[in-house]
Amino acid sequence: MKYMILIYDNAQTRERFFSEEGAELMAEVEAIMKEITESGELIGGEALADPSNTKTIRLAGGVPAITDGPYAEAKEHLGGYLMVECETPERAAEIALRWPSSRFSPLEVRPLMSPDGAEM
Amino acid sequence: VSTDAGVEDRLRALTPQVLGALVRRHGQFDACEDAVQEALIAAAEQWPAEGVPDNPRAWLLTVAGRRLTDAWRSDSARRAREDSALAAEPADARVAPGADVGLEALDADGPGDEDDTLTLLLHCCHPELSAPSQIALTLRAVGGLTTAEIAGAFLVPEATMAQRISRAKARIRATGTVFTMRQGAEREERLRTVLHVLYLVFNEGYTASSGAELARGELTAEAIRLTRAVRRLLPDDGEVEGLLALMLLTDARRAARTAADGSLVPLAEQDRGRWNAGEIAEGIALVTDALARAPLGPYQLQAAIGAVHAEAVEAGATDWPQIVALYRVLERIAPNPMVTLNHAVAVAMVDGPQAGLALLATLDGALAESHRLVAVRAHLLELAGDTSAARDAYHEAARQTTSLPEQRHLEGRAAKLV
Predict the structure, then answer these.
(1) A42: which chain B residues are within 8 Å (Cβ-Cβ)?
(2) Distance (Å) from the alpha carbon of A16 to chain B's nearest alpha carbon
(3) B83 pLDDT exceeds 80?
(4) How confident is the model at residue B213, as a pLDDT?
């Protein structure tokens, strides 16, 4: 099963990664990335730019409106994601738990929809 | 890769012969497997342009042998650089003899080619490997598919699939497994794993939606081809024959199982005129023969159930009492919740929806989170006339499934019940 691991950040997450303890956190990231690369579980992943760079698009009363920034100030925002393929949901959760930001802010593990299916 | 189908078929058929011969000569399954893969890629590029060589097998053996020698030379050169204590010794002294030496002799001796196919299958289905690793390695080492083709079929990047294959080979190497034909109970157990792997390969292809079918649909043909090869080697094994029959009887429905708009068509609503008559005839002949062979196994019984469906000219003519009887035997010899689920559907067709629902109730817990259980319950509730509960169950199953076509199908069923 393929999963997307959504990594949420709060205002302090990136600060921590660039502070004195940052080297240790990055070493943890590298260790888990190395492990899931070698195991063939890693399919992809990206980090997202700060939410202040966001454009929000919405149709208000039939009129398209594009505004700067997210809809509302949130305590947490999506900071990036990993795509993995794991044998069990427990294994996908284990990978998420090993991601060091899990100590400061939540991650979500969500199964992907598949284009395949059998007649029922 | 610009290769015509003829060349590709020949390369795939030759793969286990060439790999088996190399491994018997040199050991080192993992290095030989890499070398053969490189030779296949070279052949796929050169043969369509330059023509197929007079002796394709010898050509592949020679090229793979050279790749193996190159790999060993660069390995020992690297080791020589790393090991300063050996720096004074001439590098040539440590170089292995060329693997392309004496291949003609190799070509003539040793056990036959077909023995190697089975030995290779048993080797790739090593019990230490996960099912996805067994599948990937089998498709490459025995099936002769490239890493890119396997990655495309499983919808992952090529680098990801390459990692899985090299890790699988490293794992086998770490166990110290020798490349040799297994014997006795170990061979029997491994053979069951091989059949399961071939079954999984088939299913990957069969469940592919039309959009993804180009890359994935080929897996059904590959599974059938490899199962045919195993059957040629083990003609008296009823389960091998049963598995081949099951694949053919299932594959026969392929064209009828999706509508023009890509949506799924349930068995009862399929246009049986679009079923593949040739595959059905072959499947029925195989299963008839297989059922006479003891001991009976789950593939023989599933194929027998498939044959009963195939023999019905229309859904209404299905011999459900016979299907119920076959599921009863299947539940006894290979009990599993999915079997009970299908058994419940058959029971509902014979004794009415309430009898089916009663059998389903025994599954709560075992299959608590399966959308299949909820979908079957929805169907039986619909048959029982409990429209409101059926609609709720269809919605619930649609929420739980991770398959887009199944979700669409289930939401469609719910919408019809308004």
Answers:
(1) 160
(2) 31
(3) no
(4) 61
ipTM field: 0.87
DSSP code for B382 = H
DSSP string computed for B79-92: HHHH-GGGTTS-GG
Whole-number Cα distances in Å, A41 to A91, B74, B286, B338: 10, 29, 39, 28
- Distance of alpha carbon B205 from alpha carbon B227, whole angstroms: 14
Q: Which residues of B154-188 are buried (b: 16+ CB within 10 A; e: fewer)?
A: bbbeeebbbbbbbbbbebbeeeeeebeebeeeeee
- Residues whose CB falls within 8 Å of the CB of residue B247, separated by 6 or more in sequence, listed in order: B199, B202, B220, B223, B224, B227
With tokens 């006894």, the residue in question is B332
B160, A43: Cβ pair inside 8 Å? yes
Which residues 238-297 of chain B have a CB within 8 Å of chain A? 253, 257, 264-267, 270
For residue B156, give the nearest of A83, A36, A7, A78 by alpha carbon: A83
Residue B388, C-beta contacts closer than 8 angstroms, at least 6 positions apart: none
Helices (H), A1-120: 13-17, 22-38, 89-98
Asked whether the predicted pLDDT for residue A31 surpasses 60, the reply is yes
- The answer to whether residues A81 and A62 touch, using CB atoms and an 8 Å cutoff, is no
A-chain CB neighbours of B209 within 8 Å are: 115-117
